[in-house]
Amino acid sequence: MSISGVNSAIATIGPITSGENTPQKVGNQKSSDAINEFSNLIKDGVNKVSDSIKEYETMAGDFADGKNVSVHELVIKGEQADISLRLMSAVKTKVIDAYNEIMRMQV
After folding, report:
1. What angle do CA 101, 31, 37 make, to 5 degrees?
2. pTM
3. Quick one: which of 7, 17, 78, 93 has its CA closest to 48?
């Protein structure tokens, strides 16, 4: 059994923790490149979560219409969407906390 929603959310976060975007490497890039890279990373993550939720809603609609959708597949897809959404919310909170911490730093 593969939990694709969680795997895709973890894969989205993967480049941040894999050492590709360490401060040393980002420091050598133009700041606009780093900003665009981070922005694209966030957009991709949000799009994947949105797609996961849409898939669940489609499956739930099909189930309600009496189409051939098993209950356990529906529940699994719902949990995948829920976990993806909670993970995105936790990442958002961490990003906001990091931003606030940077804003508190004295130069």
Report:
1. 85
2. 0.64
3. 7
- Asked if residues 48 and 84 have their Cβ atoms less than 8 Å apart, the reply is yes
Each domain of the chain, given as residue ranges in start order, spans: 4-104
Instruction: Dump pLDDT digits (tens) for 38-91.
Output: 889 989 999 999 999 999 999 999 999 999 999 999 999 999 999 999 999 999
Alpha carbon distance 60, 80 (integer Å): 13
Question: Is 63 within 8 Å of 69 (Cβ atoms)?
Answer: yes
CA 34-12-54 angle, 5° bins: 120
In terms of Cα–Cα distance, which of 95, 19, 20, 84 is closest to 52?
A: 84
| Residues 46/88, Cβ–Cβ less than 8 Å | yes
